[in-house]
Amino acid sequence: MKKIFDFLAWPVAFGLMAALAFLLFSPSVRPLLNAQSAGASYGQNARHSYAEAVSRAAPAVVNIFTQRKVPKQRHPLIDDPLFRHFFNNANVPQQERLQSSLGSGVIMNPDGYVLTNHHVINGADQIVVLLNDGREAQARVIGTDPDTDLAVLKINLDNLHAIALGDPSAARVGDVVLAIGNPFGVGQTVTQGIISAVGRYGLGINTFENYLQTDAAINPGNSGGALVDADGNLIGINTAILDKTGFSVGISFAVPIDMALRTLKDIAEHGHVVRGWIGVEAQAVSPQLARNLGVSADIGVIVTGVYKDSPAHQVGIRAGDIITHLNGIALGDGRKGVQFIEQSRPGDSITLRIQRGLQVAEVQLTMAAQPSN
């Protein structure tokens, strides 16, 4: 075998050299060596670049830095009578320290209204907003909505770049999205992913949930930042990740911008969110509960509690009742009901179909204003 390879070596080597010379010096072939491969493009003309979308959206995304005063941890023996005399300053007031945190936000209009997450600024004594162009300003809180984890800030600066709005209801699973924010405080960062799911509900993150789910990397510091479509239009406010380590593993959630805009409008006009309330606590009917009750798992929601003197209490709704329909629409797993309540107003009249054991009845009630607590 060795001899055969020795014999073949020279013809093969000669053939390779000849082919290389042909490629290098043949006029008809040389241009192909310098040309970009078909279908590939770079820079401004890049077919698969999202640089234009980023340039449209990024100037409207801000970094948010907060500080709050928190008590310093006292020595565990400082209040013990047996050891108190060892501490010369045992009678001094509780000392405080500054705790810093960071997040992101989105400039919604040229007047300086900024959307972010409630948890980003909750309890903050000082809020500083840093713009993409390097300017910074103190921000004041106009209002918050813990039920959707949203907050509205106001900054007083001129020539603000407001973000363009998209339509989250048109988002489809598989659509490309970009997350823009300030992860870990490293500065404005853009990550790319797709819409993994729409209408995520029942995660236990907030009271009202209708999330866009994405695999775009979202990490601590991204909260309150922008989720934009491939054209740079805002479709969501990045809010949460689902991971026990606290770091992104491709399951992230954003509040759809149509929900966020309702919060922004109410807070700008009233200082708080105006939302209807019927006065019940309810949960989806789990498969196990459905088997125990002998009903379908997607029949609706089961009432687990009724607030005294609430609209539901006044029309006789009780714990254990199953609400199957709202204004003639089947509730299914309850997501539709949550969406309806989130968009409702005090004074709205609604009709509920209630199943209690083998009995079915319809009741009409007028929604009250959601209590502040």
UniProtKB/TrEMBL annotation:
Top-level EC class as recorded in UniProt: hydrolase
Species annotation: Simiduia aestuariiviva
Residue intervals of the PDZ domain: 279-331
Keywords: Hydrolase, Protease, Serine protease
Protein name (database record): Serine protease DegS
Annotated family: Belongs to the peptidase S1C family.
GO-annotated biological processes: proteolysis
Membrane-crossing segments per the record: none
Gene Ontology molecular function, alphabetical: serine-type endopeptidase activity
Cytoplasm listed as a keyword: no
EC number: 3.4.21.-
SMART domains associated with the record: PDZ
Domain of life of the native organism: Bacteria
